[in-house]
Design a protein that fits this description.
The protein is built from twelve helices and four strands. 67% of the residues lie in helices and 3% in strands. With 372 residues, it is mostly helical. The termini are far apart. It has a two-stranded antiparallel ribbon.
Length: 372
């Protein structure tokens, strides 16, 4: 078709279909299986989380499960929206320019890629903040009253923030364009002022979310280890806090591995001013998509009920951190003994010994030596 007398829509100004691309049956099968597995895993994870939410009586755990449900729902919808478009393209090989002459469909695809890409990273940082406050500032958290309705409001606020960022190209900050091989749309990665601003915003928001998650999760883990090694470890049951932190750390690790290559690649391309390497972009986009498929396994596998079946020889009766991870905790306790400030295994000489709850406290303080 001759488009010389027609004005080219903005989204097709760089890459205009049809492309000289070989559509193999493997592409359709790969995209279909990829999307189907991701949707199935997220659906299973959502059912598992919903059952746990209905059974739990802990307010902190309920809030954390609400955040997890929001993350699973986001991953599910992201795969459903973007996957259905990509699979439809590989199966029907439709021409975007004929189907979408005004770029509405392409803009929707680009917005979906940005929205469902940023939401998991922002929710991961939000959960890290919630756990940081719950573990390190429990009294402040009790005062602020993290109720279920407030947790839902925070999830909605995160979705709204990611949605506002995805709308920026529609108001002139950045542009959504057709990407090779013609199955998807994404924002333009270039050094032009408007495009550069949006590229840096997308990359820096993602990298900052990962950095915040790493920092706060590290502090929370150190605090839990100190509590585990301290004398009141027998009095404070922190099994669910350990379970939540293990899940959160795995979520952070998966997000970092899957998203950092793409975010760093975008930042490097924008600052260097070099031409976009489409092969690397496709590779890193596929890398990032694995985040939505691997996330559900964190909620499915890293639960006490599953670990009891996988490791039945462990003594699960007491449910203490020392019992669940004896060798690991013993090693970490020895490494952190100086920072704890007392003997983690029972309080040695010269310290303040806190006995069991309900019993009188005994203070074992050495008297100064008498003068000669």
């Amino acid at each position: 078709m001759n488009h010389s007398n027609e004005s080219t829509p903005l989204c097709f100004s760089i890459n205009s279909p049809p492309f000289n691309y070989t559509h193999t049956i493997a592409s359709a099968y790969f995209s279909s299986v990829f999307s189907a597995l991701g949707l199935t895993f997220n659906l299973i994870a959502f059912v598992v989380l919903l059952k746990s939410f209905l059974r739990t009586q802990s307010r902190s755990r309920s809030s954390f499960l609400i955040f997890l449900c929001g993350l699973v729902f986001t991953d599910f919808m992201g795969l459903l929206v973007t996957g259905s478009i990509v699979v439809s393209f590989h199966c029907t090989q439709f021409n975007w320019r004929l189907l979408d002459p005004h770029c509405h469909f392409c803009n929707f695809m680009g917005m979906s890629m940005v929205f469902y890409g940023l939401c998991p990273l922002l929710l991961g940082a939000t959960m890290a903040m919630e756990r940081f406050v719950g573990i390190n500032r429990p009294f402040a958290r009790s005062t602020s009253m993290m109720t279920k309705s407030r947790a839902v409001s925070i999830v909605l606020l995160v979705w709204a923030g990611a949605g506002c960022i995805s709308l920026l190209p529609l108001v002139g900050v950045g542009r959504y364009h057709m990407q090779i091989p013609g199955s998807w749309c994404f924002f333009k990665i270039s050094s032009e002022a408007s495009d550069m601003a949006f590229c840096l915003l997308f990359s820096l928001v993602g990298l900052l979310s990962i950095a915040v998650s790493f920092l706060l999760n590290t502090i929370s883990v150190v605090t839990l280890v100190k509590v585990c090694c301290s004398q009141d470890a027998r009095q404070r049951r922190r099994d669910y806090e350990v379970e939540m932190m293990v899940q959160l750390i795995w979520i952070m690790m998966i997000a970092s591995i899957c998203w950092c290559p793409l975010l760093v690649f975008i930042t490097k391309t924008v600052f260097s001013g070099s031409p976009l390497r489409i092969h690397y972009l496709l590779l890193f986009i596929r890398f990032a998509t694995w985040n939505q498929i691997l996330d559900p396994w964190v909620y499915i596998l890293f639960r006490r009920a599953v670990l009891k079946r996988l490791y039945p020889r462990w003594d699960w009766s007491q449910g203490s951190i020392r019992t669940l991870y004896p060798s690991f905790v013993g090693t970490v306790c020895r490494l952190t003994r100086a920072s704890v400030g007392s003997d983690p295994l029972g309080g040695g000489d010269g310290g303040v010994s806190v006995k069991e709850e309900g019993k009188p406290q005994s203070f074992n303080v050495k008297a100064p030596p008498s003068p000669p």
